[in-house]
Amino acid sequence: MQKLFLFLMLLLLAGIIYARRDVWYPKLEGIGTRYQTIRQNDGTLAEGNFPLTVSGGIDYETADMNGSLVILSDANFYIYGLDGNLRESRQHAYANAMMEVAGKKALIYESSGNQFRVESKSKTLYTKELDEQIVFARLSSNGNVAVVTTSQLCACTIRVYDENGQEIYSRDCVDRVSDLAFNPKGNGCSIVLLTVQDGQILSTVRSFLFDSKGEQWTSEPLNTFCISLSVTDSGVFLMGDTRCAFYDNAGQQTGMYAYTGTLVGGSSENGKAALLFENETKRRSSLVLLDSVGADPRQIDFDTVVKNVHVMDENAYVLTKVGMETYSFDGTQKSSVEVSDSYDDFLQIDKYLFLFGYDKIDRMDFAN
C-alpha cells in the first residue's frame, strides 16, 4: 500500500508539472547554453585549446585587451590567454551589451539601456546607472569614458567620466551625434554632428578639451553620413557612406576621397585608412588604401569575395573567402596564407591571428 501510494503521488506530481509546462518551460529554455556560450574544446590541437566553440549561434564581440583575447557574449564577459585558457568569466545582465576596449580596460554598456561598467583583467572597476538611455559610449586609453545619451531638452547629451567613475565634463548637443573619438591623451575628443540641408545629410566635426568650455575647432560640413571617426596625433579621419576625409589638428581638410563603388567595410589607424568596396554586378571586391600624407590612393582588385579588412601595425590585413593577405600602403602584398571559408572576421594579437566564425574561434601563427 505504501508503494502504491508513493507511485500515485509521483504520478500526480508529474501530471501537475505537465499541465503547467507553459509556465516553467520558458524559464528553463536555453539554460544549458545561456551561461556557457563559449567553451574550450578537448585540447587535441597541437597548440593551446583551440578552436574555442561558440554555441547556440550567439552574437559575440572580441577585442585585444593588453595582450589578452576578450569576448563579450549575450550574458558573459570572458578573458582568455593567448594559449586559449580561460582566465576570467563574469556575468552581466545587459539586454543589448556592447563593448569598447582600450589598453588594459574594457567598457561594457547597455545600448538603449541606462547602465555601463568598466572592467580590468582582475575585477570590475566600477558600474554606473544613468537616468537617460545610452545611445553609445567610448573608452579612452587613460580610462576616461564618454557616454552619449538621449535628452528631453536637446538631441543628446555627452557625459565624460574619469577612471574612477567621477563625471568631469558634460555637453548638450542640439544636433545628433553620430560618433565620438578621444584624442590620444584622453583629455579631449572630437565628435561628428549630423544635420540636413536641402535634403542632404551633412557631417561636421567639432573638437574640444574637457577642461575648456569652448571648442578647439569646427570643420566645414562634409556631404556624407558619418559611419566612424578616428583621432590620432596628426589629425582626424572621418569615414562616411559616400566619401571620407582627413583633417589636421586645426580642423582643415587635408584630403578627401569620393567613393566610386558601394562601401561594405573600412578601417583606419594612425592616419592610414583601408576601404573595402563591392561590385554586386560583377561580384568582385576592391580595396582602396589611403594615407593622410597625401599619397595617391592605391586600389587592389580581388576576384573573390573579401569579407573584412583591418589596419594594424601600418599594414592592411584583408580576409577573403580563401585566405588572409597583408598589404603595405604602397599597394605591395607582404604576405598571404590560405584559410577556410568559415571565418568572417579576425584579430591579430602578438604573433597570432585569431579567426572568428559563426560557431568557433581559431588561432594561427601569422607573421608579416
UniProtKB/TrEMBL annotation:
SUPFAM superfamilies: 3-carboxy-cis,cis-mucoante lactonizing enzyme. InterPro entries: DUF5711 (IPR043765). This is WD40 repeat domain-containing protein. It comes from Ruminococcus champanellensis (strain DSM 18848 / JCM 17042 / KCTC 15320 / 18P13).
